[in-house]
Amino acid sequence: MILLDQVTKTYRGDAHPALDHVSLHIEPNEFVFLVGQSGAGKSTLIKMITKEEIPDSGKIIVGGIDLDYVKKRYIPHYRRRLGVVFQDYKLLPGRTVFENVAFALEIAGMSNSEINKTVPKVLELVGLLDKAKKFPRHLSGGEQQRVSIARSVARQPKILIADEPTGNLDKLTREEIIDLLKKINDFGTTLLVTTHDENIVNNLQKRVVTLKDGRVVADQKIHGIYRLDGSGKITESLKTPTRRIVRTTELGKRPINPSPIQPVAVAPTPVVAPTASANPVRTTAARTATPVKAATPRRRSARPATTPVTAKDPRRYRARRVI
To answer: With 90 as the cut, is the pLDDT of residue 282 above it?
Structure first.
């Protein structure tokens, strides 16, 4: 779904690259956290995917589209395939909640009848159907972020990028936004979320990619936790309890005793002499002594070689009449 191969980007005047040979592959319907300290390269990587920036080298493929071949005039059409959620919401202050969501559909060329059917469903998904006629200034920060999410998913994109979606929100509102993103991911949308919230990352335990100095220093495919250095050190509060693994037999019926095997004295088995039987078993020697009947030679080989057999041989006709 998203593929970055050896992507490098250096801004003019910087001594070190913002992205240094970054390679990353995100599968469809995956939920990925992108973490790292400020200046690690998270925003630059997002801009590469949305084609706000062009890499100095490397390859970027998003949804089967090679971004090297997307011309400048087609960039708006490409971005409509993506959903982007910003930290500062970027809502239109002079439009209502309904109109903010409908605006994204109008740009996509959707008819008014389709917009009137789609917007209420999207607002119901984010829990803002009762506030469709309110303006952004009348909403809380969490509600404005939900409007931003609704506007991003209204076109049903396959990829949703959320850049610090919970940065300006309180703890309870952050959890509501993350639950909403999980619901969107359950519908089949691929999510890439940048965040500094350690608790959210550790609670969800999704895939976690760590950037440091423009490089991918850690990529935890499953049960990921918040790491900034990529050293693999886990704090005591995050350690998984050690489970005792018991090996079983091949059939899995009972466990094998892991303790050392103690030698056990075994009495020798007595040898019993064979007894006479009413029906003695024939030995191999007796069977081989039985004469074998010689195989009867084939009729054709028994005939003289000088007498050819043809279809008009009178002997064959006489044999048929006798039979």
So the answer is: no
Contact of 115 with 179, CB cutoff 8 Å: no
Domains and CATH numbers, the chain: 1-81+157-230 (3.40.50.300), 91-153 (no CATH)
Among 65, 130, 76, residue whose Cα is nearest residue 107: 76
* Residue 322 identity (one-letter amino acid): V
For the stretch 76-93, pLDDT in tens is 999 989 999 988 888 999
* Cα gap 88→77, rounded to integer Å: 23
- pLDDT reported for residue 170: 86
Query: What share of the chain has pLDDT > 70, as a percent?
Result: 71
Give the span between the Cα atoms of 163 and 195, in whole angstroms.
7
Nearest to 195 by CA among 228, 146, 233: 228
At 261 the three-state DSSP class reads coil
Beta carbons of 154 and 145 less than 8 angstroms apart? no
Sign of the C-alpha dihedral, residues 277, 278, 279, 284? positive
Nearest to 20 by CA among 46, 1, 40: 40
Strand residues in the chain grouped as ranges (E) = 2-9, 19-26, 31-35, 57-62, 65-66, 82-85, 159-163, 190-194, 207-212, 215-220
Half-sphere exposure of 39 (CA within 13 A, CB side): 4
**Matching residue, tokens 């039979």:** 323
pLDDT of 239-276, one tens digit each? Answer: 433 333 333 333 344 444 444 444 445 455 555 555 44
